[in-house]
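Hi V.,

Quick status before I head out on leave. The structure for the redesign project is tokenized and pasted below; the design run finished overnight.
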């Protein structure tokens, strides 16, 4: 049942992303990023928006603080056994490829498990991946609001009896590219490699 809910939520997310494209770029206005998009999708909702979270230093930050340069956002959790580490490693590789090309892109990891992902836990996680990786957490309400802004899905699984501290969290796995003063412009699925992701991000940066 949980897996079916996750699949349904992913379908809703794709529809919302399609809707954003239609409203932002398919209503007759010129899309400056058209050449950077790999597929044409159409539909109707907004992706991205204001959020308030807590960074790994315990400081309260807003979306304007976080997206102060081209940014790759990923929603996951530090206890994730496989998907999140692989996705974040791919994102970090793409960021490093871009840096070699003289392009600075900020990698950001937003936890959808605020009960366990304290600022200290995020510091350990991000320091092991990249010195510029920013980890964000917050209250359950703050995390939910950020997730809803980006139309992501997550659902905590029920822990085994007697082992309440160990549980998995089903979640969507898109990475989002956001630009200062523009906001969300693109999303990347899990099957894209780091070099291809870097190429596509660079295209957006060239078109800014």
């Amino acid at each position: 049942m949980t897996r079916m809910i996750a699949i349904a939520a992913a379908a809703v997310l794709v529809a919302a992303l399609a809707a954003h494209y239609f409203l932002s770029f398919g209503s007759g206005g010129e899309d400056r990023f058209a050449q950077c998009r790999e597929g044409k999708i159409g539909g109707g909702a907004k992706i991205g928006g204001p959020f308030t979270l807590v960074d790994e230093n315990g400081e309260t930050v807003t979306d304007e603080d976080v997206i102060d340069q081209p940014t790759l956002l990923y929603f996951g959790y530090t206890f994730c056994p496989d998907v999140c580490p692989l996705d974040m490693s791919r994102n970090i590789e793409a960021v490093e490829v871009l840096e070699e090309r003289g392009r600075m892109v900020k990698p950001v990891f937003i936890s959808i498990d605020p009960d366990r992902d304290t600022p200290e836990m995020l510091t350990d996680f991000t320091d092991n991946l990249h010195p510029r990786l920013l980890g964000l957490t917050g209250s359950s309400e703050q995390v939910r609001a950020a997730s809803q802004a980006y139309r992501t899905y997550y659902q905590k699984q029920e822990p085994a009896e007697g082992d309440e501290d160990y549980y998995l969290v089903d979640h969507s796995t898109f990475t989002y590219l956001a630009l200062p003063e523009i906001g969300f412009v693109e999303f990347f699925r899990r099957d894209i490699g780091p070099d291809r992701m870097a190429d596509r991000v660079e295209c957006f940066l060239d078109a800014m």
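Above is the designed sequence. The CA atoms of residues 140 and 185 lie 26 Å apart.

G. will cover questions while I'm gone.

Best,
W.
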